[in-house]
Amino acid sequence: MAALHALEPGSLYAVLNQRGELGSWHWSLFFSDPLRLQQASKLNNKADTTISTGTMYHALNDNPQRQWRFQIDPNRDVVHATQTVLIMKLVDLSYLGTHLEILTALENNMRDVPVEGSVLGRQEFSGRHWFLSAMKSLDEAGFVNCEDVDALEREVIGCALRATARWNVDVEGDKGWGYRWTYAVSQCCS
Questions:
Q1: Residues forming beta bridges with residue 73, ordered by sequence position
Q2: Organism's domain of life (predicted)?
């Protein structure tokens, strides 16, 4: 079972969700939300230090035309999602300003990332290619230091393969709904 305290306020994460096929994941970026943490703690009347919600950024093609589109999902809970396989910390962005300032800047940057066609010299577009393009864009804008997105891709896939193997074993042996994701910290980004 994953440690529920792993997510840090103001940090950017790669989140991979199981899609049904072995080695096939939905790729997204996730920015943790410390404001939701404070609100949840007040509602529960306790000092809960678990951050599980934030804003998810990803490319989807879930419409009847199968056309790709960029989507922002605020208030997304990745920690308690049953399909989450991997949560990889990429970088702490909290030093860049307030949560709202960083959130706005991230959204402005990611809205410009292409959601169709050839991306980064790859033939077929996918959510993974959008993720890598977004990381390249964030690197160029100074949010992250991640000059080699191919190395990041290999790192995330390697962690996701190991996480999926554990996730599949846990799912088969689990009698209830547990949280089976794996937490990792990127060595390719800072």
A1: 56
A2: Eukaryota
